Automatic annotation (TrEMBL):
Keywords assigned: Acyltransferase, Transferase
InterPro entries: Acyl_CoA_acyltransferase, Bact_Acetyltransf, GNAT_dom
Organism name: Nocardioides aquiterrae
The protein's name in its UniProt record: GNAT family N-acetyltransferase
Domain N-acetyltransferase positions: 1-141
Length: 148
Protein backbone atom coordinates (compact mmCIF):
# COMPACT_ATOMS: atom_id res chain seq x y z
CA UNK A 1 0.00 0.00 0.00
CA UNK A 2 2.90 2.33 0.67
CA UNK A 3 4.15 1.89 -2.90
CA UNK A 4 0.73 2.80 -4.31
CA UNK A 5 0.54 5.88 -2.08
CA UNK A 6 4.06 6.90 -3.15
CA UNK A 7 3.16 6.53 -6.84
CA UNK A 8 -0.01 8.53 -6.22
CA UNK A 9 2.02 11.35 -4.65
CA UNK A 10 4.72 11.30 -7.34
CA UNK A 11 2.31 11.20 -10.27
CA UNK A 12 -0.49 13.44 -9.00
CA UNK A 13 1.32 15.91 -6.74
CA UNK A 14 -0.97 18.23 -4.82
CA UNK A 15 -4.01 16.38 -6.17
CA UNK A 16 -2.88 13.03 -4.72
CA UNK A 17 -5.01 11.22 -2.21
CA UNK A 18 -3.53 10.85 1.26
CA UNK A 19 -1.74 7.64 2.21
CA UNK A 20 -4.57 6.93 4.68
CA UNK A 21 -7.23 7.23 1.97
CA UNK A 22 -5.21 5.04 -0.40
CA UNK A 23 -4.88 2.44 2.36
CA UNK A 24 -8.65 2.49 2.96
CA UNK A 25 -9.30 1.98 -0.75
CA UNK A 26 -6.74 -0.76 -1.28
CA UNK A 27 -8.04 -2.58 1.81
CA UNK A 28 -11.55 -2.53 0.33
CA UNK A 29 -13.05 -0.27 2.98
CA UNK A 30 -14.37 2.34 0.53
CA UNK A 31 -17.69 1.21 -0.93
CA UNK A 32 -17.79 1.03 -4.74
CA UNK A 33 -14.02 1.73 -5.08
CA UNK A 34 -11.70 -0.73 -6.85
CA UNK A 35 -7.94 -0.49 -7.30
CA UNK A 36 -6.24 -1.98 -10.35
CA UNK A 37 -2.50 -2.23 -9.84
CA UNK A 38 0.32 -3.11 -12.24
CA UNK A 39 3.63 -4.42 -10.97
CA UNK A 40 6.90 -5.38 -12.65
CA UNK A 41 9.70 -7.53 -11.33
CA UNK A 42 12.37 -5.10 -10.18
CA UNK A 43 14.96 -7.79 -9.50
CA UNK A 44 14.48 -7.56 -5.75
CA UNK A 45 10.76 -8.31 -5.95
CA UNK A 46 7.68 -6.75 -7.47
CA UNK A 47 7.49 -2.99 -7.88
CA UNK A 48 4.26 -1.00 -8.39
CA UNK A 49 4.48 0.94 -11.66
CA UNK A 50 0.87 1.90 -12.24
CA UNK A 51 -2.58 2.00 -10.76
CA UNK A 52 -6.10 3.02 -11.61
CA UNK A 53 -8.98 3.63 -9.24
CA UNK A 54 -12.55 3.22 -10.38
CA UNK A 55 -15.97 3.48 -8.84
CA UNK A 56 -19.06 1.75 -10.19
CA UNK A 57 -22.49 2.71 -8.88
CA UNK A 58 -25.49 1.33 -10.77
CA UNK A 59 -25.14 2.38 -14.43
CA UNK A 60 -22.37 4.96 -13.92
CA UNK A 61 -18.66 4.27 -13.54
CA UNK A 62 -16.07 6.88 -12.71
CA UNK A 63 -12.35 6.73 -13.26
CA UNK A 64 -11.17 8.34 -10.04
CA UNK A 65 -7.46 8.32 -10.87
CA UNK A 66 -4.85 6.75 -13.04
CA UNK A 67 -1.13 7.00 -12.37
CA UNK A 68 1.92 5.53 -14.06
CA UNK A 69 5.50 5.68 -12.82
CA UNK A 70 7.51 8.15 -14.92
CA UNK A 71 9.92 5.44 -16.10
CA UNK A 72 6.99 3.43 -17.52
CA UNK A 73 5.06 6.19 -19.28
CA UNK A 74 4.45 5.96 -23.02
CA UNK A 75 4.72 2.16 -22.88
CA UNK A 76 1.00 1.42 -23.20
CA UNK A 77 0.57 0.84 -19.48
CA UNK A 78 -2.01 3.63 -19.02
CA UNK A 79 -3.98 2.26 -21.98
CA UNK A 80 -3.97 -1.23 -20.46
CA UNK A 81 -5.09 0.16 -17.10
CA UNK A 82 -7.87 2.14 -18.78
CA UNK A 83 -8.95 -0.96 -20.73
CA UNK A 84 -9.12 -2.87 -17.43
CA UNK A 85 -11.26 -0.10 -15.90
CA UNK A 86 -13.60 -0.20 -18.93
CA UNK A 87 -13.91 -3.98 -18.57
CA UNK A 88 -14.59 -3.77 -14.84
CA UNK A 89 -17.15 -1.01 -15.39
CA UNK A 90 -19.00 -3.08 -17.99
CA UNK A 91 -18.93 -6.13 -15.73
CA UNK A 92 -20.33 -3.96 -12.93
CA UNK A 93 -23.28 -2.98 -15.12
CA UNK A 94 -22.21 0.57 -16.01
CA UNK A 95 -23.24 1.99 -19.36
CA UNK A 96 -20.91 5.01 -19.22
CA UNK A 97 -17.57 5.97 -17.75
CA UNK A 98 -16.89 9.49 -16.46
CA UNK A 99 -13.70 11.22 -15.41
CA UNK A 100 -12.31 14.64 -14.61
CA UNK A 101 -9.00 15.88 -15.97
CA UNK A 102 -7.19 19.18 -15.47
CA UNK A 103 -7.89 21.58 -18.34
CA UNK A 104 -4.15 22.38 -18.47
CA UNK A 105 -3.18 18.71 -18.97
CA UNK A 106 -3.11 18.58 -22.78
CA UNK A 107 -1.48 15.14 -22.81
CA UNK A 108 -4.22 13.58 -20.69
CA UNK A 109 -6.97 15.32 -22.66
CA UNK A 110 -5.54 13.92 -25.90
CA UNK A 111 -5.07 10.47 -24.33
CA UNK A 112 -8.72 10.27 -23.28
CA UNK A 113 -10.07 11.78 -26.51
CA UNK A 114 -8.15 9.17 -28.52
CA UNK A 115 -9.89 6.50 -26.43
CA UNK A 116 -13.42 7.65 -27.11
CA UNK A 117 -14.00 10.18 -24.33
CA UNK A 118 -15.80 13.42 -25.10
CA UNK A 119 -16.07 16.58 -23.04
CA UNK A 120 -19.48 16.95 -21.40
CA UNK A 121 -18.92 19.66 -18.79
CA UNK A 122 -16.40 21.77 -16.90
CA UNK A 123 -16.02 22.24 -13.16
CA UNK A 124 -14.52 25.63 -12.40
CA UNK A 125 -11.89 25.79 -9.66
CA UNK A 126 -12.16 22.02 -9.10
CA UNK A 127 -8.54 21.36 -8.19
CA UNK A 128 -6.73 22.63 -5.11
CA UNK A 129 -4.82 25.23 -7.10
CA UNK A 130 -8.00 26.55 -8.70
CA UNK A 131 -7.60 24.84 -12.07
CA UNK A 132 -10.77 23.90 -13.90
CA UNK A 133 -11.64 20.23 -14.43
CA UNK A 134 -12.84 18.99 -17.79
CA UNK A 135 -15.51 16.33 -17.29
CA UNK A 136 -15.30 13.62 -19.94
CA UNK A 137 -17.59 10.73 -20.76
CA UNK A 138 -17.29 7.51 -22.71
CA UNK A 139 -20.19 5.26 -23.55
CA UNK A 140 -19.73 1.61 -22.63
CA UNK A 141 -22.75 0.36 -24.59
CA UNK A 142 -24.37 1.25 -27.89
CA UNK A 143 -27.05 3.90 -27.65
CA UNK A 144 -25.59 5.82 -24.72
CA UNK A 145 -23.94 8.77 -26.43
CA UNK A 146 -20.55 8.20 -28.02
CA UNK A 147 -19.76 4.80 -29.52
CA UNK A 148 -18.73 2.15 -27.02
Amino acid sequence: MLAIAALERDALGDDAWSAALVEEGVAGRLPTISYLVTEVDAGDGPSVVGHAVASVVADIAELQRIAVDSAHRRTGLASRLLDAVVGAAREGGADRLLLEVREDNAGALAFYAARGFVEVDRRRRYYRDGTTAVVMRRSLVRGCGASG
